[in-house]
Amino acid sequence: MAQVETSKPTSPSSGWSDLWKKEDYWAVWLGLGVVIAAIILWTSGSSFMKWVAISVPGYTEFGKATSYISTHVSGIIGLYLLFLILFSFAVKVLGHKLSQFIPGFTVLYIMSVLVTIVGSWDIMKKYNLEAPLLALAVGLIIGNFVKLPKFMDASLRTEFFVKTGIVLMGATLPFTLIMQSGPVAFLQATIIAVTTYLTIYWAGTRLFGLDNRFSATLAAGGSICGVSASIAIGGSVKAEKQHVSISISLVIVWAIVMIFALPIFIKALGIAPGPAGAWIGTSEFADAAGMAAAASINEQAIKTFTLMKVVGRDMFVGIWCFVMALVSITKWEKRHDGTKPNAGEIWLRFPKFVLGFFVASIIITLLVASVDATTSAAINAQVIGPIKVLRGWAFIFTFLSIGLTTRFRELTSVGWKPFAAFTTGVLVNVPLGYILSVIVMGGYWAMVK
């Protein structure tokens, strides 16, 4: 069992420097900066956001893809420069070498463009291998079978990319959508998140003797929002980096299994699209993978998936971060200096990018609520739409980085116990998700259009 580090008193003066020395804060600044810049550019009549919002359309003939790329070369370069400038500025301030980050990010971006082009092919969509999941697959293959150049290490900043993407996601999910999901969606999300979390945590600590922090990180990945939850909870409880990596790997493995398994079961059982999307939302472990699985059904399934997974379960990350940070500070950490935990220490561990998510959502909600229907449509097309595209690219960077940095041998290096603990949660989550989504609340989800 890993040794527990004793916490050190926090210097009161360290708080302000965290605003520019912590990755969490930089994810907030970059995400909110993009949102505010998009609004300012829209009000000034600029088309910059639409110009860099490169989204390769679906195609059946490869010539259509090459035609799109050839007519949007300037936008592709502009998008690259936008992300390069934003991330490079933050990376430099955080104390990393741009001489390594820039060439590494350039390679990552080129790979992302290629993955996006291939992932837009209808053959790939047919087999649920659209860009995000394809990025995972490509990254895993390359990462496990090809030796990457050393300079790539500086650019594969999984946590930074996913945190920035989550903040941008807030701008695409206004509070009105949360209100529309109703109390039923929140009730189901609560049951699923709490039950699965406690199951994995109990199995990890009681059945398989894993460290409390390790079990908490595994439980977060399996019950809330996959990769980002593993990162957030792992940080809140001060889990070891290797344990966070293993949790992420297990999320990826089961997400890939479920992206194929759930649609097969849904079609075999003849489940209606609404309840089907809700079931995917309760039992899929990654937003991108779940979205791909829901997209294989229809638009209604995508909507109910979003309400259950993104709006419902993902919201628990903030709650669990607070709860688990409190438990870690008061129960797991031995204090030899006589100090006691305080609320300020919990705040320091709370993932700030979650707050950025809510702030972005509030900004867009207030903006849309303050205008008429015609202007609202313009905001959706020229502000929210491009932000969705940028969010998508951030997640592609994320999933490529996850794949390129994930080593399957890491799972075996700690034995079978983490896998068994996580799988115990899967065995509870999937049947419970079916019971709630199809049997108990099927009528409700069928009516969500």
Automatic annotation (TrEMBL):
Listed GO cellular component terms?
A: plasma membrane
Q: Where in the cell is it found?
A: Cell membrane
Q: Give the membrane topology, semicolon-separated if more than one.
A: Multi-pass membrane protein
InterPro entries membership: UPF0324_pro
Would the keyword Transmembrane helix turn up in this protein's UniProt record?
yes
The keyword Signal belongs to this UniProt entry's keyword annotation: no
Q: Which domain of life is it from?
A: Bacteria
Q: Locate the transmembrane regions by residue number.
A: 26-44, 65-89, 101-119, 131-148, 160-178, 185-204, 216-237, 244-266, 315-332, 353-370, 390-408, 420-447
Homology family: Belongs to the UPF0324 family.
Q: What is this protein called?
A: Putative membrane protein
Q: What is the source species?
A: Desulfosporosinus orientis (strain ATCC 19365 / DSM 765 / NCIMB 8382 / VKM B-1628 / Singapore I)
